[in-house]
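Input/output pair, single chain:
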Amino acid sequence: MPIKTKLLLSTVFGCCSLLISAQSAQNSSGGNLNSASGSISFSTGNVFYREFSSSTGTLVPGTQHSYELTPTLGINENSISLEMKIFPNPVADKLTLTADSKNTKDLTYRLHSATGALLKTGQISERETIVDMTDFPSSTYFFSVQQAGKPLKNYTIIKK
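Output:
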């Protein structure tokens, strides 16, 4: 085979190998099952094929993403200055909310599932409030703080 043909073939194969991309996975669990009739391996998680990026955002087909929506326009009608911290995040069992404000009058919290179902509500009457999340499964939750029914702060909570 002439050298020009070999060079052309190696260039074509080299360029084609750059265009081929394999899939990768972010697995949350998996395992192997064996029996007398055979065996099977399985995994649970997200499969990533290819990431598409542009100036307006990033798209990763086959995955689910959680988002925290924050208003960027509008009038701030909050009548109090409220500094809050929620920790730990991700949480294993107890979520701690600290409010650096002396005015905790009419402050309440609401815990919603990722589907929007209301799971828990409570009063915030002290500087530190403990929210028990022991009975909830591992997932993403939305935690909101309100004063007299008006939203003040929104948080995304990840439960381990």
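The longest helix spans residues 3-19. The CA atoms of residues 10 and 16 lie 10 Å apart.
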